[in-house]
């Protein structure tokens, strides 16, 4: 993680803002990925029997 942070361009405040944006985008993408996996491959919570 330190290597990725050091590879970001700009001074420290710009690096921090860029890191926050990247993490936010990654979390949103992860949420939609989990929703897709849950609705495509896992049980949707239907009735048993």
Structure description:
With 49 residues, this protein is mainly α. The protein has a domain at 12-40. Helix content is 71%, strand content 0%. It has 2 helices and no strands. The model has no long low-confidence stretch (mean pLDDT 87).
Kindly state the mean pLDDT as a whole number? 87
Poorly predicted runs of 5 or more residues: none
Please give the count of helices. Answer: 2
Q: Report the count of strand segments.
A: 0
Oligomer: single chain
N→C terminal distance: 48 Å
The SSE string, one letter per element, is HH
User: What kind of sheet is the major sheet?
Assistant: none
Beta-strand content estimate: under 5%
What is the rounded Rg?
Answer: 18 Å
* Helix/strand/pairing category: mainly alpha
Query: What overall form do the CA principal axes indicate?
Result: rod-shaped
Helix content: over 70%
Secondary structure elements and pairings:
Layout: H1 2-7, H2 12-40
Which features would summarize this protein structure in a list?
mainly alpha; 2 helices; 49 residues; rod-shaped
Summarize this, please?
With 49 residues, the chain is mostly helical.
């Amino acid at each position: 993680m330190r290597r990725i942070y050091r590879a970001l361009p700009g001074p420290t405040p710009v690096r921090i803002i860029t890191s926050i944006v990247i993490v936010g985008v990654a979390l949103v993408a992860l949420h939609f990925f989990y929703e897709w996996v849950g609705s495509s491959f896992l049980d949707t919570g239907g009735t048993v029997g």
